[in-house]
Amino acid sequence: MTPSYEFLSAPVWLITGLHVLTLALHFLAMGLVFGGLGLILFARLDDKWSRPAVRTFLRALPSAMAATITLGVAPLLFVQLVYHRQVYAAAIVSGWYWIGILAAVVIAYFVLYRVALVPRLAPGRVALWLGLALAALVYASLAYAGIFAMAEAPKTIQSAYAADPSGQSFNPDVGAWIFRWLHMVAGAFTLGAFALGIFGRRDEKLFAYAKRALVIAMTAAVLAGLIYLGSLGPLLARFLQSPALAFIAVTLVLSLASLALFFRGRLAASGALLFVSLLSMVSNRQLLRSIRLDGIVDSSAMPFKPQWSVLLLFAVCFVVALGAVAYMLWLYFGEAGRTGEEAAEAR
Amino acid sequence: MNYPFWDVGIGYGVLMATIAIVHVFISHFAIGGGLFLVVTEIRARRRGEPGWLDYLERLSRFFALTTLVLGALTGVGIWFIIGLLNPEATELLIHNFVWGWATEWTFFVVEITAAIVYFYGWKRMSAKSHLAVGWLYFAAAWLSLAVINGILTFMLTPGRWITTGSFWDGFFTRSYWPSLVLRTGICILLAGVYALAVASRRPRSDEKTAIVRYDTAWALGGLVISVPAFYWYFATLPETILATARAKMPWPMEWHSAVLWLVAVLALGLVLFGFALGRRFTLPVAVALMVLAFAWFGSFEFLRESIRKPWIVTGAMYGNGIEADRVPELQKTGLLPALAYRTGDDGRDLFNRACRSCHTIAGYKAMRTYYDGTDAPYIAGTIRGSLHMRGNMPPFAGTPAEIDTLAAYIAAHVDTRPLAEVYGLSGPELGRKSYEVRCAKCHVIGGYNDKTPALAGMGLEDIEVLLDSAGDLSDEMPPFTGDTAERDALAGYLVSATSGGAR
Fold this sequence. Notes:
The complex is a heterodimer of chains A (347) and B (503). Chain A is mainly α. Helices cover 80% and strands 0% of the residues of chain A. The chains are: A mainly alpha (347), B mainly alpha (503). The interface between A and B is large, with 75 and 77 residues.
């Protein structure tokens, strides 16, 4: 007999915790790119593309995109440990849309690099290129929302597959994903507005725009979230009886506190609260998934065969990696702050 | 069997290769390139060569764009595609190696950050800091290779994992170290040829000559490491895998012998154009050397993938995602009842589950090539005997009734007119074609499972009688179902073969 692979190699709480943490980090980077890009594209500012803060923001986008992709790998890895059957099944039924995400991200990535590295693009062209990148990212977000919503609805997967097994089915239950998607987009714009505020903290007009955008996006995120909750139907009662209500309260309170701090210019504290509220929201998302799949996925029934030594190796490498990243950023930003003469001398 | 099947018209091998080939070339270059950049930067700074630093900065731009955009995305792309093409195998690998992959991810985070900081840091950081970031980049990139190498070698040589199920038993198998050395050599080789491509665009000068020679030395160094490691790697493979490959997969194994010639041409090209004609080194020459280097690396990957057939994880799971242990049970209870997702067309479901991981009807490894001119009873016979086929086929994991259903489905999608009509042949040519279509799947004259010696001395009529009763010879022998003209032609061909005329 060959060894069974239907087992969990770590406690479920740890897998879930890592999934939530890394997904929140992914959303953070994604919000900067997607929300920030959308907001800057539609901002009405004089000489928008020539403003130093905007140029700096555009130059940062490729790196933020790299972070988005890198940070997106881990949650995808961890979610497969428990929900592999649902996630793969939904991805297969929507195979072409799933693969299409890659094409969309390649386009967005290429465009962001082009805009960041070509020094004197005409303003019209900058808007055109960034519009293309935004369209690609809108596609990717729609595909993700549709597929991951379908992963929580096994009957929809069954019927979609029976109707068309060629991977051309997109989640037919629009109500199940549209509000979820709107909530995610509004959340991304909230994070994007915060990022614009950071980059534009010394640009009065850009910072004022970021403040307005933050209020609007946060309000939209709350509204979309409430509508999404309303669309849950019979599940809503069960959802509200779970710790979800506490998470919702935490998300709302921290978001409002973050907003207040942002308006007072205390950006570090505001950002910290915003990230914790994001973590809380992602936890809720996970809670909802477990309620939707209750009776279909039972992680407690999966054999537990721990791999402690490798887990420890991962934990050590994770800490070392965080340290290495912090060290490199410290080197970069520390020395970037020097005067040109000092840097030249150092070379 | 717990998943739907992505019923797409393109061969799975083509889909996988499209993303995987791009990724492996870029990812290996990314590792070797990291070492190349940091070592060459140290050299250039020590010697005070601004021209070299300018060259490295340009190279790092190309390097960062290629690795960060295409490397990272095709890496994610492999995740996306394996989940679509073989979710069972992905599940097996994820559950066994998730913390290995998670560890690799931490290296990946460092690698990406370092690549960005290194690229943007040329004019903003001190030499010492810039080099520190460069070393961090290379260390993280190479460590990510060291992790993924363990999972790749596991698939061909799972070692003691088969009995223990232990992570480390599956990770550090006998082919781990030679594969790691081989891949490290490839990384250095690819870094050298990529660097040559960037150097080729510089104006003619003594500096260009020096850079081209330096890059050539890197590429040759990569060859010096990777070629012996290639043979070391093959020496560690279990003889059972190699013997089966020699018998049933002669083409990849013959290619294995030809690889040395490819390496010799590459080495000669590098010495001639890199060392002797460094000043006139042009982009077309660089591209040609790059193609040769890819071909050498591709040969290894191609061989590794080919000889693993019919397994996705040797001894544990077949390429179609069916676990070896479950085959006897499925042959009794049936494959269809075990499928969690059905289309309503049983033949299609069986074809998808049993065959489509390697074959399509009309495209990649097409059924039409194998079965045009035959019919359902013949096809059913070959499915029963699939274990004996060349190309390393898995056994059919279903009931006899499901074999008939599958055969009927395939027959409905191929050309079942008589062979003579399908190919417009007659006489000896028809006999040769008939042998190719009906017999050569399992019997190669002068080669694998050759049965012609047993026919020696038999006359035309004897062989015709034998063909008429072929289906009765064993359960795994398909019946001869061709028309009289084809039977006569095949019998004639076999008589000629036994007298040495058909070789």
